[in-house]
Specification:
Layout (H helix, E strand, L loop, with lengths): L4 H11 L12 E2 L15 E2 L1 H8 L3 H12 L6 H7 L2 H13 L4
Antiparallel strand pairs: 1-2
Helix pairs in contact: 1-2, 1-3, 1-5
Length: 102
């Protein structure tokens, strides 16, 4: 089954929907606040791009997802995540999801 851009964005948004599961300045951290890989079993908090990377394994899909989200900002998702509030990041995902074609 092929995963769509919209489904990746929904999954990523759900992963970071609670401020307690969102982070800044790292793709993923464990409960002690230590940087870990996005697929590490101890990863419990993710930045916006880390969440996208977790669900978009293929490079082309990841690029399509990032391109979709970044089309609404004048920045990279990584940088936007680190400069904005959790609520602003969630609103960005909501907008991108709402305007997905698939």
């Amino acid at each position: 089954m092929t995963v769509s851009v919209k489904q990746v964005l929904i999954n990523a948004r759900n992963l970071i929907s609670d401020p307690c599961t969102w982070t800044q300045c790292s793709f993923a951290i464990d409960r002690r606040g230590v940087d870990v890989g996005i697929n590490d079993s101890g990863a419990c908090c993710f930045c916006a791009e880390g969440a996208v990377r977790k669900y978009a394994k293929a490079f082309a899909l990841r690029k399509a997802c990032l391109d979709k989200v970044e089309s609404y900002i004048n920045d990279s998702l990584w940088s936007f995540n680190d400069k904005h509030s959790h609520a602003e990041v969630i609103r960005l995902f909501d907008r991108a999801i709402a305007e997905c074609d698939d």
